Every structure is written in structure tokens, then in C-alpha cells.
Amino acid sequence: MNANQTNAGLIVAAGASTRMGFDKMTASLHGMPVVEWSLRAFQECSEITHGVLVCAPDRIAEFQKLAAPYPKFQHIVAGGSERSASVLNGLRVLARSGADYVAVHDAARPLVTPILISRILEGARIHQAAAAAQPVTDTLHRGDGQGVLLETVSRQGIYAMQTPQGARFKILLAALEAHQAGSTDEVSALLAHGIRPVAILNDKPNFKITYPRDLAMAEALMAKGAPLSNQI
Predict the structure, then answer these.
(1) pTM (two decimals)
(2) Rounded CA gap, 192 and 60, in Å?
């Protein structure tokens, strides 16, 4: 990293957890709330210089306390009605800091590691934008509205996207300001803006906590020593 370069982290924790049945951000995971695992990974990543945590508007005081042990994340930002709006709110606050690059991460992926964050930032420096991803290995079929399967979809060149997703700061901000509607992640906004991010293949566990079974799986992995340190 260039000595004068600043890399911001943007952690999104503003979801409603409707499919979980309870708030997953503050659910206990291996001794800490879920959201803290992402805060810790970004705090321990030497390339991240500062960041913001985005949460629900009525939970700012609560998340300020959760983020207190992580000095890089002392800016707590109110999220929007959709994920893209939450990210845009965070980017607009970060714009005041003059960040060169930004890595956006869903706090629902608590298995993220500092080394993965660094790999995303490296990819962004080389290609303007990068995202953690895994090649799709399952057979894919397209169906109709009733679930009737109609045709097979080739999985060649198909990737399941993860986070972090990173980019040159000004490019990502412009992409989301222009293409917020319909953007389910940063890559979709960047593609709509004419930017072609690079997929950074990740073979470590980095799944999203969506259902209670996912929380149990993450707990089991951590108990067995899943990669959680800057050395992995």
C-alpha cells in the first residue's frame, strides 16, 4: 500500500433479520455478537485506515457501544430502507475523509479475515474494483413462477458473490449514486456503471448468516479453529 493511500472499511449491519426470526447482528457467536467479528477483522487489517458502521436508524446508540473497542469504526451511520441505500449513506459520510479505496462488507458474514480484506483491496488497486467470490459448482436450472423447471443454465463462468467488495472510492460512489435502484450489491452497481470488477476467489468459509442453522454452522467452524486471525 502506498504510504499516502487511505483505505476505508464500510460494514453494513442495517438489515431487519426477518428470515432469522431474531436479531442476528447482536446474536452471540463464539463469545461475541455477530457484528463484532467483522469489526475485529477490519480493525486487525493493517491496510484499513478508518471506516464506518451502518446500522438501523433507531439502533445507533446501541451500535456505538458495540463499536467502541474498535477505534477505526467510531463513525456509526444510519442505514436506509434497502442495502444499497445503506451503503450509499455510508459512502457519503466516508467521502469527507478523502478515502482512495473502500471495502464494503456485510456484517452477516462473520468469518471474514483480515487477509481476505487485503486481497480485495489489492484487486481493486489493480483492476479498479474487486469482490470475494466462489465459482458456482451446483447444477443450475431456470424455473417459472410456480417452481416448474424449464431449462438448464450453464454454470461456466458463473460466480456466487460474497463480501468484501472493494473499489476505488470515487468510482463506487458514482456507481451507486447513478444505479442505486435495483443494485443488490456493489458489483451490480459497478457493472451498470461500465466497470468490470475482478473476482477474488476465496476458498475459506465466508457464508452469510441468514437462518438459525447458519449461526450454528459458524459456531461449529469457530470451535474447530476456523480462520479468524491476520495470520490466515
Answers:
(1) 0.94
(2) 32
Q: Render the burial of 3-22: b for 16+ CB within 10 Å, e for the rest.
A: eeebbbbbbbbbbebeebee
Task: Give the three cell numbers for residue 136.
Answer: 458456482
User: 7-223: what CATH class?
Assistant: alpha beta
Question: What is the distance between the alpha carbons of residues 90 and 12, in angstroms, rounded to a whole number?
Answer: 8
Decide if 27 contacts 213 (C-beta within 8 A). no
Cell numbers 470475494 correspond to 132
Helices (H), the chain: 34-44, 60-67, 83-94, 114-127, 169-179, 186-192, 212-223
Pairing assessment for the beta strands 140-143 and 149-153 based on DSSP bridges: antiparallel
Q: Write out the chain's pLDDT in tens, 232 residues.
A: 666 789 999 999 997 666 676 789 999 999 999 999 999 999 999 999 999 999 999 999 999 999 999 999 999 999 999 999 999 999 999 999 999 999 999 999 999 999 999 999 999 999 999 999 999 999 999 999 999 999 999 999 999 999 999 999 999 999 999 999 889 999 999 999 999 999 999 989 999 999 999 999 999 999 987 665 444 4
* % helix, strand, coil for the chain, step of 5: 35, 25, 40
Listed by start position, the domains of the chain span: 7-223
Can you say how many angstroms the Cα of residue 62 is from the centroid of all Cα atoms in its chain? 21
